[in-house]
Amino acid sequence: MSSLKEIKSRIISVRSTQKITRAMRMVASAKLHHAQNMAQNFLRYADELHDVVTTLQTVRQEEKPAKAVAIIPFSSSSGLCGAFNSNIIKETRRCIDEYLQAGATVYVYPVGKKITNEIKKDSTLPVNLDYCALNEKAEKEDVYPLVQQFVAHLLALYNEDKIQRVELVYHHFQSMGKQVIEHKTLTMEKRMVKAHQENLITEPSPQELIDALHPRLLNAEFYSTLLDTITSEHAARMLSMQTADDNANDLLNELTLLYNKTRQQDITNELVDIMGGKNA
What we know:
The chain has six helices and four strands, in the order αβαβαααββα. By secondary structure, it is an alpha/beta fold. It has a four-stranded mixed β-sheet. The longest helix has 74 residues. The model has no long low-confidence stretch (mean pLDDT 88).
């Protein structure tokens, strides 16, 4: 059985750790609130833009098999967020293997240190690290110009037929306790105006509108995904810290009970020794 000193030392250690987890939970809660507001506000713009463009464009044709694919996985840049990063790493690996087995060339553009470090281990894949810190910068500054630059780079590759598909792999925020992995394919092709919409009175013309709005739609799709994964990261970290706090409480209760039992046993032993000495 552990001594009273050892048990007391463990109690002090657990309480110190609990202070850290509670502080991190509060920080994650504040960041989550900020990220949710940003995502919700931007989503209104993205939805309206999507409605305008889809109203003008023709029905999307069935996609052809892609010979070259750009995969953009989103992870966090720090840990202590449960299975958030391990799940996205596993899903990214599965997605890459699926395209490679189909005979496609895969280009990877990781966003987040955790997925970047994992992808860098595979030297056979073409990996672009220019935007791997995009999620970190998004919480400190306006990264929309970087998003525009990133999307313009992808669009140039698509127009040059160097890639035929751009797929995003990320966590979608559903609720505080649930973030699910989703795949989003960017609508890289710029479709023509619907035949029955050509008589719409617009300024400029419908086709000019599509030409101008299509890049903005891609920017909105990408940026909303970035905000979504940041929101999911903070929710996962908050939940992880809450779980750690609950486990610390359970451990403290067990240690306190053990401390009291050990103390009571020591007192009983001392009384027995005293009584034994008196009788002797």
